[in-house]
Amino acid sequence: MMVRQQNMTIARMIPAQKPQRHMTSRQFRVFSTSGRMFSRRIGNNDGPTLAHFIQAAATRRLWRTTLRTINELGEPELRKDMRIWAREEFDRHKTERDLERIKYFIAAGKKQLEVMAETLRRSRLS
C-alpha cells in the first residue's frame, strides 16, 4: 500500500506537457521510435514543379546573357554599376513562385537586355 501511494505521488509531481500547436488539415503528426514528435505536410504542397525548373533554367540563361552583354561595355565603372543594377533586379524577384509572374519577369528582362544591347551597338557605331 505504501509503494502504491508513493508511485501516485511521483506521478503527480511530473509537470504537465505543453499544449500542442494547432495543425492545419494538410498536416499530420508522426511519432518516431524515440517518442519525439514531428510534423509532415501531406496533400498538395507548394513545392517546385517541372515548370518551375524550366523557368529557373531560363532565368539562369537570362542572367548569363546579361553578364555577357555587360562585359562588352568599355568602361569598368559602368560595368560595375550595371552588374550591381542587374543583381538587384534579379534579387528583387528571386522569391517569386507564381509561374505567370516569373514568365513575365523573364520576358521583361529579355526586352531590357535587347534595349541595352542595341544601345551598346549604336554607341560603338558613333
Unreliable stretches (pLDDT < 50, length at least 5) are 6-11, 25-32
| Helix content percent band | 55-70%
**Global shape:** elongated
**Adjacency order of strands in the biggest sheet:** 1-2
Residue fraction in strands: 5-15%
Q: Which class do the helix and strand fractions yield? A: mainly alpha
The run of helices and strands is: HEEHHH
Q: What summary fits the major beta sheet?
A: 2 strands, antiparallel
Describe the structure using short key phrases.
elongated, 4 helices, 126 residues, mainly alpha
Please give a quick description of this structure.
62% of the residues lie in helices and 8% in strands. The chain has 126 residues and is mainly alpha-helical. The chain has a two-stranded antiparallel sheet with strand order 1-2.
Can you describe what's shown?
This protein has 126 residues and is mainly alpha-helical. The chain has a domain at 50-125. It is 62% helix and 8% strand. The chain is built from 4 helices and 2 strands. It has a two-stranded antiparallel sheet. The chain is elongated, with a radius of gyration of 29 Å. 2% of the residues are buried.
Record the SSE blueprint.
Blueprint: H1 2-13, E1 27-31, E2 37-41, H2 50-71, H3 76-92, H4 99-125
Antiparallel strand pairs: 1-2
Helix pairs in contact: 2-3, 2-4
